[in-house]
Amino acid sequence: MTKKTIAVLPGDGIGPEVTTAAINVLETIADKYDHHFTFQQGWIGGSAIDEKGDPLPRETKEMSAESDGILLGAVGGPKWDRLPGAERPEKGLLEIRKSLDLYANLRPVKAYASLIESSPLKEAIVANVDFLIVRELTGGLYFGEPKKREDIRGETQAIDTLLYKASEIKRIAERAFQAAQLRNGKVVSVDKANVLESSRLWRETVDDVHASYPDVELEHMLVDNAAMQLIAQPAAFDVMVTENTFGDILSDEASMLTGSLGLLPSASLGSTGVGLYEPVHGSAPDIAGENRANPLAAISSAAMMVKYGFKMEKEAEKIETAVEKVLADGYRTADIAPKMEEAVTTTEMTDAVIKALE
Ligand SMILES: NC(=O)C1=CN([C@@H]2O[C@H](COP(=O)(O)OP(=O)(O)OC[C@H]3O[C@@H](n4cnc5c(N)ncnc54)[C@H](O)[C@@H]3O)[C@@H](O)[C@H]2O)C=CC1
Ligand SMILES: CC(C)CC(=O)C(=O)O
Ligand SMILES: [Mg+2]
User: Fold this and answer.
1) Which residues, at least 6 apart from 148, have a Cβ–Cβ distance to it below 8 Å?
2) Most C-beta atoms within 10 A of its C-beta, which of 214, 216, 339, 358?
3) Catalytic residue among 91, 192, 307, 318
């Protein structure tokens, strides 16, 4: 019997609904394969501000650092939108990523053949969309200093800093080339090197790292073109590596190649051994509490946890196959249902996945 302790940070909005779904799936896997998973809940985000006065309370940080893996829902919502940046729910998420040095955010984008009708980009799904976004997660605009507001000659101005060290670029580039070696051997590095100094360093550093991976093909692409190419020829991508902000935006765009943001999982990995697994989507305040959220992104994030965090390949594959099966069987939450009256709820979708696991 393998024992694992999982820190569960549901967060805000639909976060608690989708993490409950993922926990139910993990419990079924534990029963089936004779593992013992212990779940420890912690506060993060807006709910942590309300309960503890801090978007990342010390207890959450410690419990997460000591766990074998962190399962996170999402943070944020209109209730906290007027708070200053340093006190907002999102700060809790940025801080846990930074404090655990989770610099590599893997966001697989894989279309399900059974969802062709649900995508506004049907041709994309037909074209077998299957690529990996490797997003740098602990540098760039979200973290660079100075980050502040100031009054200059009677006018308020705001500053964010886009800062990258060569060492930060080097380690994420290495992750991308290694991922490509296990896939189809092609990396597209996305930057804005025609305008940004940080992107010029990015490009030079990626080129330097590439010298050690001669078996991998490398192409540099400017981010505006990349945004277009994702729609024009999504099947041409294998691994895309990019900095924090570009990766954040391009992965939401890429989600629509699969049919919905509610389908994309992610794994954030780093140097400390503990990984954080969360859906790509946010807290979706517009549907929170309605049992309408698609739980498949969170469930697939749990699959990434057992695969990357616990090295349980067959358990991960079991979850992935169950997700494929429920979609092939026609289960559709509202975000992917062609007809609203045919949509299933979050809990019905979760129950269908659990049944498919048995
Ligand atoms: N990782 C995180 O915790 C993230 C948090 N956020 C926060 O979430 C809040 C809302 O941000 P938005 O811009 O609205 O982005 P969002 O990702 O929460 O929602 C965007 C749209 O996608 C839909 N959607 C998202 N997840 C879904 C799911 N599982 N099933 C069905 N539909 C789904 C929503 O209903 C909404 O229409 C903000 O406070 C933002 O800062 C946003 C992105 C990531
Ligand atoms: C707080 C944000 C940076 C979260 C987000 O949008 C993301 O990580 O995708
Ligand atoms: Mg995002």
Assistant:
1) 158, 159
2) 216
3) 192
**What pTM was computed for the model?**
0.97
First to last CA, the chain: 19
What residue ranges do the domains of the chain occupy?
1-103+264-358, 120-258
Is 93 a pocket residue for ligand 2 (Cβ < 6 Å)? yes
Domains 1-103+264-358 and 120-258 in one fold: yes
Neighbours of 50 (CB within 10 A): 13
| CATH H-level, domain 120-258: superfamily | Isopropylmalate Dehydrogenase (3.40.718.10)
- Which whole number is the average pLDDT over 112-137? 81
Q: For residue 114, is pLDDT > 90?
A: no
- Among 159, 169, 212, 168, smallest CA distance to 189 is for 169
Q: 119 pLDDT band (50/70/90 cuts)?
A: low
What's the CA angle centered on 214, arms 213 and 220, to 5 degrees?
Answer: 80
Binding site membership of 283 for ligand 1 (Cβ less than 6 Å): yes
- Active site annotation includes 192: yes
Separation in Å, CA 324 to CA 55, 111, 305, 306? 35, 10, 18, 17
Q: Which amino acid is at 326?
A: V
Helix extents (H) in 118-190: 122-126, 166-181
Secondary structure E strands in the chain: 3-11, 36-41, 69-74, 104-110, 130-136, 144-152, 155-161, 186-191, 217-222, 239-242, 267-269, 276-277
Q: Is 12 a catalytic residue?
A: no
Above 0.95 for ipTM, yes or no? yes
Q: Which ligand is nearest to the CA of 15?
A: 1
CATH, domain range 1-103+264-358: 3.40.718.10
The answer to whether 46 touches 92, Cβ cutoff 8 Å, is no
Is residue 292 part of an annotated ligand binding site? Answer: yes
Please indicate whether residue 351 is annotated as part of the active site: no
**To which residue do tokens 């090197």 refer?**
193
